[in-house]
Amino acid sequence: MLTEALRGVALLARGRGEGIGRFEGGLRGAQLSLVAAPICLALYAATRAIEWRLIGVPARPWRAVVLELLAFVIGWAGFAVASELVLRRAGAAARWPLYITAWSWCNIVGYGLVLLGDVPDLLGAPPIVSEAVALVVFGWALWVEWFAAMLTLERDVVLASALVLMDVCFGVGLVVVVELLS
Predict the structure, then answer these.
(1) What is the largest CA-CA distance in the chain?
(2) Dihedral angle at the C-alpha atoms of 19, 22, 27, 28, nearest 10 degrees?
(3) d(CA 17, CA 15)
(4) Cα gap 23→29, rounded to integer Å
(5) Among positive and negative, which fits the CA dihedral 153, 156, 157, 163?
(6) What is the pTM of this model?
(7) CA distance to 2, 28, 37, per residue, from 32 (Å)
(8) pLDDT, tens digit, for every residue of 45-84?
(9) Residue 5 · residue 22 · CB < 8 Å
(10) Sequence-separated (6 or more) residues with CB below 8 Å from residue 20
């Protein structure tokens, strides 16, 4: 199951739509895709550790860790619930299990790309290089999420784009809350 899902998401990251067929469908597939969450949490933690190394450890590191962990869990579960509500209202509720399955697995690519985007900073690259790499990997991560959404939602451009935008807004909102509470 994990191997097939990772093969599927690797295909999607390369623009190959047949990757969707590697995911188990239905609610069982959505449940199994929760395996992606701890993988993503590890990638996210690595990204935050790199940031702390570069800009310094927060004044209250344990508080920051707890807030980051809560934000991750709230973001993951909150987006899953919100996306189900959106798809139900759009008349596409039957597509939600495959959509959320693909979204979960695609997050591994997204978090992995963001982590990869931190490498130039770690290596002391000039800001222009770091910023260019960050822009490319962030754009690629968004594209993979959108591509998977397009495939699972039967090429509904507006709905796929709205869900990606909603996901970005969730993420940005949680970052702001964590920063305010830290």
Answers:
(1) 49
(2) -160
(3) 6
(4) 7
(5) negative
(6) 0.93
(7) 9, 6, 10
(8) 999 999 999 989 988 999 999 999 999 999 999 999 999 9
(9) yes
(10) 8, 12, 98, 102, 148, 151, 152
